[in-house]
Specification:
This protein is an alpha/beta fold and 310 residues long. 25% of the residues lie in helices and 31% in strands. It contains seven helices and 18 strands. Strand 6, helix 5 and strand 7 form a beta-alpha-beta unit.
Length: 310
């Protein structure tokens, strides 16, 4: 879908918008979202960033997904200007417009922006979503001084419901106005959307006294090996921060362990040493988290770049 097609759909007489989930933990799904809820979501973001009819929105992501659609909705709600480009890993390469008030990118595009910061237009706010931000990239963003915000949300919540600034002292996610959060009995995040509906996620969460929250991992990604539970996201974050490459911790059926732990390493230009990884795992993780096998390969990903889990 193009932005022109979506804007025509948005301005049409139907009450709902058809959206597609990313499929990072299963098959992609098609869902219908009320336009009134997309309007509320857009208004929350506009208020947070103080955006209005003179604001310039620029999107580097596709209109097929909720992140792209919502950039159009935010501009429609505020009366501001929307520009966009064909998604690539070289965002703003051919951009010739003026200052941007809100730029939407995915993590891989943020790398190009940092590598070419001197040629970028003035950008007031950048939101990064669609996939987890690797530790090395997070560090570069924090040191850049750019005003960059990590998003938390999903298609079912009409884009992000919480934001956190990426800086040297990164704190938890702060929910936007009209959003309430709590924990389920299993310790997962429950979201209440401004009188619309409640969503019980599979994201295990820690909620601080000030209402901010941290995502600890996904309950449906837990691996049981030798009768013990392993949270792959916790292992991945530690390894990525230590070795500076992207890693997917997964498992395969095993006669002895039930499931054996496998580390998939996407080291690109880096030469990541298996012995160093094993030694780090023995030093930092419990025994059940140690890899039974390490493979170097291109990580499986969804259409919009997220790591694709089992």
């Amino acid at each position: 879908m193009t932005y022109e097609e979506f804007i025509q759909e948005w301005r049409g007489e139907t009450d709902n918008v058809i959206c597609h989930t990313s499929g990072s933990t299963g098959e992609p799904q098609t869902i219908s979202l009320p336009k009134r809820e997309l309007w509320k979501s857009a208004s929350r973001t506009n208020r947070f960033f103080n955006l209005g009819d003179r604001s310039h929105y620029h999107s580097c992501i596709a209109a097929d997904y909720i992140g792209g659609k919502m950039m159009a909705v935010r501009s429609e709600v505020s009366g501001g200007i929307l520009t966009y480009e064909t998604p690539s890993n070289r965002p703003l390469k051919d951009y010739s417009g003026g200052p941007v008030d809100l730029l939407a990118v995915v993590p891989s595009q943020m790398i190009h922006i940092l590598d070419n910061e001197e040629t970028m237009p003035p950008i007031r706010n950048i939101i990064v979503g669609g996939a987890p931000i690797p530790a090395g990239l997070r560090k570069r963003i924090a040191e850049s001084g750019l005003n960059v915000w990590e998003t938390y949300g999903m298609t079912e919540t009409c884009s992000h419901i919480a934001l956190r600034k990426i800086d040297v002292c990164t704190s938890g996610f702060s929910v936007l106005d009209g959003i309430e959060i709590s924990k389920t009995i299993d310790g997962c995040l429950k979201i209440r959307l401004d009188g619309w509906k409640e969503i019980e996620t599979h994201d295990m969460v820690e909620i601080a006294e000030d209402g901010t929250f941290e995502i600890l991992g996904r309950s449906d990604s837990m691996i049981i090996t030798g009768g013990k539970k392993v949270n792959p996201l916790t292992i991945e974050r530690a390894l990525e921060e230590e070795f500076g490459c992207e890693i997917l911790v997964t498992s395969e059926p095993d006669e002895k362990w039930g499931e054996k732990i496998v580390y998939l390493i996407e080291d690109t230009d880096l030469q990541v040493n298996d012995t160093a990884i094993k030694e780090y795992a023995r030093r930092e993780f419990k025994e059940e988290c140690h890899p039974k096998e390490i493979r170097h390969m291109k990580l499986p990903r969804t259409a919009n770049g997220k790591k694709k889990r089992r």
